[in-house]
Amino acid sequence: MTLQDGTTAESESFAAALAGVDWSRPWFQPFAPRGAALAAAVQGGADLRGLLDAESVALGLHNARDLPLRFVPQLALPEGRAYEAHIDATGEVPTRDNLHDFFNALVWLHFPQAKRVLNQIQATVIAREGVRTARGGVRDAATLFDENAVLFLSEDDEHAQALRGFAWQRLFVGRRHAWGTTCRVVPFGHALLEKLVRPYKAVTAHAWTLPLVAQGELDKAVALSLQESAAAGRLRGGHCFAPLPVMGIPGWCGDNASPDFYADTAVFRPGRMRDLHRQPD
User: Which of 67, 146, 249, 268 has a CA positioned 20 to 30 A from the CA of residue 58?
Assistant: First the structure.
């Protein structure tokens, strides 16, 4: 449902939605300090976009054209202009009072380099090809990343190989002891974060594999990975990701302490032959 800006009923609905976010959940932990503070301020009557602008100024955020990043009402997006092209041309991020756009802004604040690269990739394709009914491979991959990605970080390739091979028992049971140390997952997609406000077993993310890096280096590592993948032609469609049912992640769901949790093949599917044999470029 598309929300228009400025009505009391919508503000109350948004405040109620924010009140339903449990910031103690493990998937919200990377965003919890800033996210909880912003949510509390909005629930107290503050304007979301004003709060976000203050954060952006404090962090010195810019778009790929080095224009200051600002969060504006959705109505500021001119009719007929693509959302991504508008951010690239002006530095303005159209933002509605809803959870989807709240989480999008929160990811901008935590991963500004990666979000900047994604926006530049999308805007470049739009400038070259225009806005089409079908986004095409590059924009499709960038959109999937933006909306539904998790960053799958591992010290060696063993976990990533198990993920790509749909070897759920090996990934989540046999290698369970390594989660949180030599392997971890950080959410990135804002639509994924919105879904996880009310989690269910079948929530599945698009996993982007990366070497394990320190938290302070993660944004830079993601941005560089996206740039290199786009330049090499590897950022195309959904095939550059691995599906990851996130409720299988150790510590994310109490029920997954039992190995039987992963026997549900409707969620933890065995994979098709073309998936099992496909390796990343």
Answer: 146
Tens place of pLDDT for every residue, the chain, 281 residues? Answer: 233 444 567 788 999 999 999 999 999 999 999 999 999 999 999 999 999 999 999 999 999 999 999 999 999 999 999 999 999 999 999 999 999 999 999 999 999 999 999 999 999 999 998 876 555 699 999 999 999 999 999 998 999 999 999 999 999 999 999 999 999 999 999 999 999 999 999 999 999 999 999 999 999 999 999 999 999 999 999 999 999 999 999 999 999 999 999 999 999 999 864 454 444 44
Residues 6+ apart with CB under 8 A from 259: 169, 173
- Domain range summary for the chain, segments of one domain joined by +: 9-134, 143-277
The model's pTM: 0.92
CA distance 105 to 39: 12
| Residue tagged 């044999």 (tokens) | 277
